[in-house]
Amino acid sequence: MTEDIHVEALENVLTEPAAAFKHDYLEIRDLKVVFDGFVAVDGVDLTVTSGDLRFLIGPNGAGKTTLVDAVTGLAPAAGSVRFGGVELLGRSSHRIARSGVGRTFQTASVFEELTVLQNLDIAAGAGRKLRTLLRRRTSVPTEVEAALETIGLGKVAHLPAGVLAHGQKQWLEIGMLLVQNAHVLLLDEPVAGMSQAEREQTGLLLQRIGQQRTVVVVEHDMEFMRTYASSVTVMHQGKVLAEGSVSEVTEDERVIEVYLGSRSHGRGTAVIENGETK
Ligand SMILES: Nc1ncnc2c1ncn2[C@@H]1O[C@H](COP(=O)(O)OP(=O)(O)OP(=O)(O)O)[C@@H](O)[C@H]1O
Q1: Which residue range or ranges hold the ABC transporter domain (predicted)?
Q2: Predicted pLDDT of residue 106
């Protein structure tokens, strides 16, 4: 009987590639970032598995972006950041990106004069010559085609990225991470400045991507967080203040006191009525 169960589990892993990624998780231990004596990230432990759409929230200056910078090699840090068992701290940002860890910034950083397709092609084509990348293609590589479909920009593939709507630029950036084969995506305020319709599309996109990849979303939009997060980590003054499901953290008195009860979280107001956080 026991043997039968093991065989079945093994078959599931072999036939379902997504299952294999479950073992690739982001593991942050005792992360510390100090700027000229100021401790911006102070001994953070964080574990995020694939299939878990994790939101990282907290007041301004809590250390959220600095944590993402440290994980992606843009801020000097002490401690440990491992993905798939590989230590990332101490590696250059390029090597970290090649290890499958990608991020977006608060302001989209796509090549505005190049088409959507060219942007994706460049992201996918590390190692190819620039002239080859810019040449109009007769066929679209499979991974680029798949990313175009996932981010829903197939119809505008040949338009310059500069003419895209704000939301579409963010989706293009996410697509660029997908074609780079990023298995960990760290997204810094992806829905800032988006319309309600764009927010909804972004939420659904993140849920789709999050099924097979490890996604961490830094956000101030609490309405967006409530709708799409599968788990939440709250940072305050460089430390993890609370962690759990959306209801666990939104009902946590400490979180209400330092963040949700205040107005320091931008859009998606968290008004407290009858002791309930809305
Ligand atoms: N390069 C730097 N040099 C010095 N201090 C910095 C640097 N980068 C960030 N800080 C400080 O570290 C603290 C954490 O900043 P960080 O941007 O990580 O916060 P945050 O939680 O992302 O805030 P926000 O929600 O406003 O983006 C802040 O006090 C900030 O001023």
Answers
A1: 26-262
A2: 73
ipTM above 0.90, yes or no: yes
Query: pLDDT tens-digit profile of 54-75?
Result: 999 999 999 999 999 999 999 9
Measured distance CA(133)–CA(135) in Å, rounded: 6
- Mutating to test ligand 1, I would choose from 32, 36, 66 the residue with most ligand atoms within 8 A of its C-beta, which is 66
Q: Which atom of ligand 1 is nearest to the CA of 68?
A: 18
Atom 2 in ligand 1: residue holding the nearest Cα: 35
Mean pLDDT of the chain: 85
Taking CB atoms within 8 Å and a gap of at least 24, the contacts of 190-197 are: 190/104, 190/217, 190/219, 191/219, 191/221, 191/224, 192/106, 192/220, 192/221, 192/266, 193/166, 194/166, 194/167, 194/170, 195/167
Residue 111: DSSP 8-state: -
Best of 33, 35, 71 for a ligand 1 pocket test (most atoms within 8 Å of beta carbon): 35
Instruction: State the pLDDT at residue 265.
Output: 58
Distance in Å, CA 35 to ligand 1 centroid: 9
Distance of CA 255 to the CA centre of its chain: 22
Q: Cβ atoms within 10 A of the Cβ of 223, count?
A: 16
Question: Residues enclosing ligand 1, CB less than 6 A?
Answer: 35, 38, 40, 58, 60-66
Higher pLDDT, 213 or 139: 213
Label residue 140 by pLDDT band (50, 70, 90): confident
Q: What is the pTM of this model?
A: 0.84
User: What is the distance in A from the centroid of ligand 1 to the CA of 27?
Assistant: 22
- Domains of the chain with bracketed CATH: 49-76+92-277 (3.40.50.300)
Q: Identify the pLDDT of residue 132.
A: 59
pLDDT confidence of residue 157: 94
